[in-house]
Amino acid sequence: MNTSRTAFSALRFSRLFLLLISSLLMNLAHAEDAVTAPAADKPADITPESIEKGRTLYRRLCLRCHGPEMVGGNNAFDLRTFPQDQHARFVNSVTNGKRAMPPWKGIISDEEISHLWSYVASRGGKS
Ligand code: HEC
């Protein structure tokens, strides 16, 4: 009878243990979610096609101030340092302009701005 008691508590213990482990694992899975889940604006969502369209637009419209491949612009913002998680700021600055930066509203479409974002946020497809 003693053995059955021991077996019983061992069973209870292992159940508890399993519960503990699985809740730990679930917590871990959630922690991983938080780290790896891409935020809506992150360059991870960006397609190579969009980057290439953005590159063409960039060369046509932005290169003269921001420099070839975003390098060596004439005192314009160094776009390689533009924060990759500030999509809304990008859209706003490109649409409405900012100081010496001209506004592009009415000149290019929202879709074209999103291709430019793909190009800039991915650093020309490098990240
Ligand atoms: C006539 C020159 C000129 C052209 C053309 C130009 N920019 Fe700019 N851009 C600037 C200057 C100057 C700044 C710095 C503005 C400031 O902060 O004073 C700037 C800043 C920016 C910024 C940073 C704005 C911020 O929020 O700080 C972005 C993004 C940007 N430009 C994107 C573009 C894109 C995309 C194009 C092409 C569609 C473009 N620019 C074309 C001159 C230009």
Residue share in helices?
55-70%
SS class: mainly alpha
Q: Give average pLDDT, whole number.
A: 80
Strand content is under 5%
Task: Note the run of SSEs as H and E.
Answer: HHHHH
Q: Bound compounds, please?
A: heme C
Distance between the termini: 67 Å
Report the total helices. 5
How many beta-strand runs?
A: 0
Stretches where pLDDT is under 50 for at least 5 consecutive residues are 16-21, 28-40
Q: Major sheet: size, sense and barrel closure?
A: none
Q: Calculate Rg over CA atoms.
A: 26 Å
Global morphology: elongated
Summarize the structure.
The chain has 127 residues and is mainly alpha-helical. 59% of the residues lie in helices and 0% in strands.
Write up what this structure looks like.
This protein is mostly helical and 127 residues long. The protein contains 5 helices and no strands. It has helices at 2-36, 48-61, 63-66, 87-96, 110-121. Helix 2 (48-61) packs across helix 5 and helix 4 (87-96) crosses helix 5 (110-121). The longest helix has 35 residues, at 2-36. Heme C is lined by residues 61-62, 64-66, 76-77, 79, 82, 89-90, 93-94, 98-102, 104, 116.
Keywords:
binds heme C, 127 residues, 5 helices, single chain, mainly alpha
Write the layout of secondary structure elements.
Layout: H1 2-36, H2 48-61, H3 63-66, H4 87-96, H5 110-121
Helix pairs in contact: 2-5, 4-5
The structure holds heme C (HEC).
